[in-house]
Amino acid sequence: MPTVVNIAGTSPVDDPSYRYKMPLVYGKVEGRGNGIKTVIPNISEVSLSLHRDAGEVNKFFGCELGAQTTYSVENDRAVVNGSHADAALQAMIHKYIESFVLCPSCGLPETHYKIREGCIYHKCAACGATEMVDMEHKLCTYILAQHKKQKKEKAKAKKDSAKTKGNTAKDGAGEKSEKKSRKSSKKEPKEDDAAKKKKKKKKDKKTKDKTKKEISDDEVEVSSLVSDSGQDDGVDDAGAIQLAVEGVQKFMQGNPNASVAEVSEVVVNQQMSSALKSHDKVHILMRAIITPSFYKEKEIEKYAPLIEKITLGNAIMERHLIGAVEFLCIDKPKVFPVMLKQLYDEEALQEDVILEWAWDGRSGYTSDAVDEGKRSGLRGEAEPFITWLQDEDDSSGSNSD
User: Fold this and answer.
1) What does the pLDDT look like over 313-325, one tens digit per residue?
2) Contact, 89 vs 26, CB < 8 A?
3) 3-state secondary structure of 203
4) What is the value of pTM for the model shown?
5) How far is CA 326 from CA 51, 185, 239, 362, in A?
6) Which residue has the higher pLDDT, 221 or 58?
7) In 3-state terms, what secondary structure has residue 184?
8) Which domains does the chain have, with CATH numbers?
């Protein structure tokens, strides 16, 4: 596991209690001669700790070192042409942090981008300042291009989704008409009385079992939302996550008046001390604060500032937030859209992130315990909310950033 250090710009932060941490970046040199290159195995861990996109961090290396770079999302493989020492890469990271991560006003790494009229701004979650980045840097061209690309992909996905729905409805109508025509032209064979009675009895039993199951499902208590056993079936690092959750809950119970900053620091410390991935802190937090009475107790409203403190408005972390909600709602899918809507209302989830989740269908942000069938069920439950969100987006599209 790479050494963990304080997140700092060009000026080091020597405070041992500083709560913003990141792993030291390291490279692996491959090839020789003109084909020599440096692969960065922990690019995702570094970028997640900074709440930035891995491709963007890798591109910064290229801009500063004057080298070609490639990043594969599918393989999570970052490559910088040429041979580069770890010290040089780490120096580049500090320079990147100084220009594109730290808030120019308070100096804390709690910013996310806001893009308006072709300009990139830092929006700080700590002090609330909105400051423009150095637009003369070559990386800005990449950031703007990625932003434009994402908007186009979302628009295309939305258009394709509408077209697919239209074709499905059309195909369904045609198939229904064809079946009706076939049924009228086809003469059904006669069945004797014994066969008819047997068939009817079987059908009645099937209907009865189905009705019984539906009633049973409707009577499930919301207590199934969070398992009392604390087990995370099929999830890697399940024990570590559960221990971290218990650590956070213990701190909150012993310190009911703890500030948002104090609780978030405990969450981050639990994640790091358990050697979990950066995005796991979202899962730790959600499992620690959400109880079966979340709706009655208004827990999402109560803890919204804490959730935002952990995600920092970063799209990747918010995708993991949706993944955490998916896990919590495995056994109670009807609760899923309720939680999504509350997180959206409290501005803990951005509209673009929710729509991206609805369109791209990728499971990379989802717990292994949520299989494809369960994910499909959760998406089905959320469809009315997504439709409403799309309608809202269409009506206010001209006013969006």
Assistant:
1) 788 888 899 999 9
2) yes
3) helix
4) 0.47
5) 22, 48, 19, 13
6) 58
7) helix
8) 4-147 (3.30.30.170), 222-399 (1.25.40.180)
